[in-house]
Amino acid sequence: MPRTLSTSDMVTPGSLGPPPTDPTDGEQIGQPLLDGAPSSASLDTLIQHLVPTTDYYPEKAYIFTFLLSSRLFIEPRELLARVCHLCIEQQQLDQPVLDKARVRKFGPKLLQLLAEWTETFPRDFQEESTIGHLKDVMGRIAPCDETYRKRMQQLLQALHQKLAAQGQGPEDLLGADKPISYRTKPPASIHRELLGVCSDPYTLAQQLTHVELERLRHIGPEEFVQAFVNKDPLASTKPCFSDKTNNLEAYVKWFNRLCYLVATEICMPAKKKQRAQVVEFFIDVARECFNIGNFNSLMAIISGMNMSPVSRLKKTWAKVKTAKFFILEHQMDPTGNFCNYRTALRGAAHRSLTAHSSREKIVIPFFSLLIKDIYFLNEGCANRLPNGHVNFEKFLELAKQVGEFITWKQVECPFEQDPSITHYLHTAPIFSEDGLYLASYESESPENQTEKERWKSLRSSILGKT
């Protein structure tokens, strides 16, 4: 039976226990913050558990979980400032004469924490003040070992490269997402049929996987938290970071674009034989996406074919061999909270864990459902308990879900990219919903009074006809 990934699968835990702290009233004492035990703590205690000492380093699973969730309660730059302050205070780094032996035991642990933080959440360091905190604390320990300065320079260089790479996101392609109105015979320069660019369904499925992984790569784990951030009642009155979800939103727009692109390609041909050919082509593409583990493109294609302007084309569907399509629909059936899809996803995740090739590692989840799951997890459990402590148990589950996503998005695409196909996927004009209906009615005449009235209205508003 497939094994569900746990937090411990996501990262390697440390070997040392947590540092001694003085818990506040009502705080769970003596219970580990991981290992599945229900746990809660004050924000101050959780921050203390993040700070390394000469003989303690936090579990990596704890670092990821707390850094992911902490932004609900404190801004990253303020958290970094407090962590650096605690390091300076506890290790007496503000003294004129440092205990070099002690600093040499502490320094590597501090560097490791900062390396993990900047690697996983580089956007937390976009502000100059955060870099200032890094340089300040490292400047205090550098005199004890010159290698610290060199490693810090390497860390900052890697951080700069990561921020630069993430700044080259897919947002520049969003201009193509705006649907166009219907034109009876658009010039070839405006519209080219997809089958003229790529007639092999296996190749298109592979190119879709390229697009998916490229877009996924730009989504930071923190965006899943920031998408649902509400103001913390014990903190400021302003919502935090609600505008820092650009890549996540761009990915959702890509899904919508693919839906409309599929519908546009199907509705565009004038002859039903050609339309049926396009439908069967997309069925084969969707089936290959399923085999690859690209569930997001699979669902977008199915959604596009189930849009009303497409599904009403009865004469077209009569010429389609639909058995394969019904099997795919069954796999993505929303019944039972997408039970069939979740089973397939677990199978793909298990295959990825035991993969012998890059292709077997690919898992691209149905993204809207992933967002929905995280949303309901966020809404279903309080961030704080009645005593004001952080509900850390909730964030362990959140970290597990986001951690799986991080593993999946880091897979290198094994397929050779075809720029002409990916360019078409990003830039080919797509019809608006009204445009799709009009194209559909032009292809197969309205069958009832409601459709006739809508057709007349659309022709009047879009084509300027009465």
Automatic annotation (TrEMBL):
Keywords tagged on the record: Guanine-nucleotide releasing factor
Annotated GO MF terms: guanyl-nucleotide exchange factor activity
Pfam assignment, any one: RasGEF_N
Any single GO CC term annotated in Swiss-Prot or TrEMBL for this entry: plasma membrane
SMART domains: RasGEF
Bias kind Polar residues: ranges: 1-10
Residue ranges of every copy of the N-terminal Ras-GEF domain listed in the record: 34-164
Protein's UniProt name: RasGEF domain family member 1C
